Amino acid sequence: MKGGHSISIFFIQNSTNTEEIKEFSLPELFQKLSSNERGLTDSEAKKRLQICGSNEIVEKKISPIIKFLSYFWGPIPWMIEIAAVLSGILHRWEDFTIILVLLMLNVTVSFWQEYKADNAIELLKQKLALKARVLRDNKWLEVQAREIVPGDIIRLRLGDIFPADVKLVSGDYLLVDESALTGESLPVEKHILDIGYSGSVIRQGEMDALVVGTGMNTFFGKTAKLVEDAKTQSHFQKAVIKIGNYLIALALMLVTLVFIVVFLRHESLLEFFQFALVLLVAAIPAALPAVLSVSMAVGAISLAKEGAIVSKLAAVEEMAGMDILCSDKTGIITQNKLDVAE
After folding, report:
1. Confidence (pLDDT) at 252
2. How many helices, marked H, and strands, marked E, lie in the chain?
3. By the 8 A CB rule, do 202 and 156 touch?
4. Which has the least CB within 10 A, 116, 122, 149, 173?
5. What is the pLDDT of residue 7?
6. Quick one: average pLDDT of 15-22?
7. 277-283: long-range contacts (C-beta < 8 A, 24 or more apart)?
8. Catalytic residues
9. Taking each helix axis from N to C terminus, what angle separates 235-264 and 75-89, rounded to the nearest 10 degrees?
10. Whose CA is closest to 118, among 299, 335, 313, 331?
11. Using CA atoms in the order 250, 253, 254, 256, what is the torsion angle rounded to 10 degrees?
């Protein structure tokens, strides 16, 4: 049994290709997963849960402190911070206070808006938490979907959502709504030996199934990982970075020119810092980030009243600048309902 257990764990951690699983017969799958028609024992399920992890989509969590500090990083924040430091060196505390207030206002508004959006998304996920009927120790139990492990036998009925990727092992048939994954509006008929995907909704029928993939090893989990790994900059971010780079180059040229003049005239560095401060304050629109953040926060609040959650403030500007939105029929952004318009 020890050898079989090691084989099953290797198979669980390396057989994430659904197409390969389709080719296995039920006896082969049961053998590879060290399971059978009676399901797993409770002790075995707990061992697998420790090894394979919870049946949930893992997200990269960023510390709130790190996220807050990240708003101080960027071309325009750098210039504002340099201006604040120069104001402090010259003991011009009024300028220092105004610059610091503008910087903190921008950082606080941006951070708080995205923090609220993250909390709202977490609450939505909690409402979507699933339970599942699992065969453990030859008895049917209702457990949290996150506790399901590969090798479990689960029962799927009308209205249930597939809690994991499964292979159907007994029963007549299922009509499954896979629109959230494939965009197909019509339910798909499933029979014994067919594969069911996590997140699909059962519209008709009842069957038992063998769990073959959980968490990030499901079809849905792999898709979520690809989306998470995708990095892109919005039009707004590109525009701000472009403006910031231009202003930095201009300010550095002017400061360098002033430094050369001060050096050639043998004047004091204190005068140079004064000129540099004037140039930096003049070259940097210190209020621009704060005004933009507040404006987009107002837009995010308006969208929230309509039921839309803005997770990134830059998305408000992106949507506002959109003329045409082209999309396919993917169920994630539709309700899978047909209406007659005319």
Report:
1. 79
2. 13, 7
3. yes
4. 122
5. 43
6. 64
7. 277/83, 277/86, 277/87, 277/90, 277/92, 277/95, 279/251, 279/254, 279/255, 280/79, 280/82, 280/83, 280/86, 280/251, 280/255, 281/83, 281/95, 281/99, 283/79, 283/247, 283/250, 283/251, 283/254
8. 328
9. 40
10. 313
11. 150
The DSSP bridge partners found for residue 213 are: 165
pLDDT at 208: 92
For each of the domains in the chain, give its residue range(s) and CATH number, in order of start.
Answer: 2-56+129-222 (2.70.150.10), 64-124+230-322 (1.20.1110.10)
* Cα–Cα dist 222/215, whole Å: 9
Residue type, 28: E
Q: Are 207 and 174 in contact (CB under 8 A)?
A: yes
- pTM for the model: 0.58
- The dihedral built from the CA positions of residue 186, 192, 197 and 199, taken in this order, carries a sign that is positive
User: Judging by DSSP bridges, how do beta strands 153-156 and 201-213 pair with one another?
Assistant: antiparallel
What's the token pair of residue 106? Answer: 């921008």
Q: Quick check: 221 and 254 in contact, CB under 8 A?
A: no
Residue identified by tokens 């997200």 is: 59
